[in-house]
Structures are given as C-alpha cells and as structure tokens.
Specification:
Strand content: under 5%
Helix content: 55-70%
Radius of gyration: 37 Å
Number of domains: 2
Distance between the termini: 88 Å
Largest sheet: none
Order of helices and strands: HHHHHHHH
Amino acid sequence: MSLKTRIPARLKALFAGVALSRKSIDAITEKEGARLTEESTDEEIDAVLNARNDIWSFDDQRKYDDYQAGKAKKDADDKEAKRLADLAAGKTPEVELPTDAPEWMKTFMTNQAAQTKALQDQIVAIGGEKVTNTRKQEYEKALEGTSDVFKAKALKDFGKMKFETDEEFTEFLTEAETDAADFIQEVSNSGLTNQNPARGVKNVPGQVKVASEAELDAVMTHL
C-alpha cells in the first residue's frame, strides 16, 4: 500500500473525530509524505502525524477548512445573486477569465454571454406572452353574456393591468365574474333587454335589443 493511501488511513485512525476537507488531506499527505518512504512503518507515519498535530492541530485545521468552505459558499451565492440582478436589470453578465487569457478568448466568451442572455430574454418574453394570452382568454370567458360595449371596455382596461402572481390574477378573475353577473342582472332589471325595452328606445320585433353605450354607462355607474 502506497504512502498516498496509508497516510490518510493513519490520519483517520489517529484523529477519527476530525473531518478534514479532501484538499487538506491531500496537502498533508504530500507534505508529510516527503518525510517518509514507502518502507516506513505505521508507527513512523503516526509519529510524523502527531508531530504535525503538535505544531498545528488537525482540529484547528478542520475549523480553518470550515471557514474556507463557508467563505467559498458565500462568494458563490453573492456571485449568483449579482448575475441574477444583472439579468433582471437587462445587463450582460460579466465573464470571469484568467488575467493571462488571450483577447480572442475574452471576445468570444463575452459574445457567448451576450447571446445566452438574448436567448434567455426571448424565452422569458415568449413565456410572458403565453401567460398573458391565456389569462386574456380566461377573462373573455368570464365576460360571456355581457354586451359588446361592456366587453370592449373591460378588455381595454385589462390590457393595462399587471399581475405579479397567479394568485393576484385568480382573485381578479373571481371579482370579474361577479361584476359581469351583476352587470347582466342590472341590465335586465333596467329594462335594456328584448323583453323589457328601456324608455325612449324603440324595440324592433324579432330583433334583439342592443343597449347604447350611453345606456350601458348609466348602468355601470350603479355597479
């Protein structure tokens, strides 16, 4: 068994409660292995590891490893947050390359990042348009039974609305269905139908009475 295998095994046996990172174990194996040979006994390996522990304890090494891991995670989280913020702001994400990278590589990677962002923006736009169209269809269904004038005005107002979440739209749609039902009932009660024509409006036999915009506005003010 080679030293690269034996040193980590003895380290684990001597300091079982210390969970070092793979990077630290490899570094310790390489450094302390230089003091040993392939013929070294387990006792000799143990002596070298104990001497290393006296200089800088493996428990302190573990704490340092945990600190480094936490710092790396925070840096990665901050970088991802910045990337998402740049995307939300319409900026092209920064491309990190080694300082000695050739200019052609920097140009290539920057162009790739710009193309990726453009594709992402397109996907988001398509998704947003699909959601908008689906919501509009649901709203149109909720307006069934109302007059063309009422429906046209409602759809015009709908085009100016923004919904942050599906819950907001669902709540709006529920209210819209109630408003539409109230409007239909109010029109019926006001006599703006074929069976009960409004005063001053002549109803042609055999034809459905269509309320004027003025009449509808008068009704809508009561909703």
